[in-house]
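Known limitations

Structure tokens in this collection are predictions and should be treated as such. Users comparing against experimental data should check residue numbering before alignment. To illustrate the layout, the record for DNA-binding transcriptional regulator, MarR family is reproduced below. The input appears on top and the generated tokens appear beneath it.
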Amino acid sequence: MSSPSPEDIARRIRPAMTKLYVMYFRIAEQSDLTGPQLSIMTRLQENGPSRISQIAREEGIRMPTASNALHQLEQRGLVERLRDTSDRRGVRVRLTVQGSDELARVGEERIQYLAEMLSSLNEEQLRAADEITDVINALAESYGGQHLLKPEAS
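Generated tokens:
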């Protein structure tokens, strides 16, 4: 028996992933931070202070979108802008202590939401889910933001 192709796997899993994504974020909407805002905050926590252009590139979004999201986070005291010491004209954005605390709180909340969804599985399914977590994490790591923006037509 031959191995399934990436297209075969995608065809089988895409509808379920879409359904789970929608259900998960409906439950998680109780937080007033959006998924993209949380992603930016997580990136700042992992990478430290960053330029807006770097955040936009890594998130796979355009500069105005990144700037708008960061402005909203700044208004709430979750991030702050600081002068770039290597280029006085440049600005970097960093997570504040309040932002770090909020990121941890919302992260724990969302872990509980996902755990609740996973608790509907039987023991065998939970073992299978445990085994595939490394694959899901590897896919998320290798995918990053590099495929989010469609390449320009040549």
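For this record: Residues 19-143 form a domain with the Arc Repressor Mutant, subunit A fold (CATH 1.10.10.10). Residues 20 and 69 are 25 Å apart (CA to CA). Please report discrepancies through the issue tracker.
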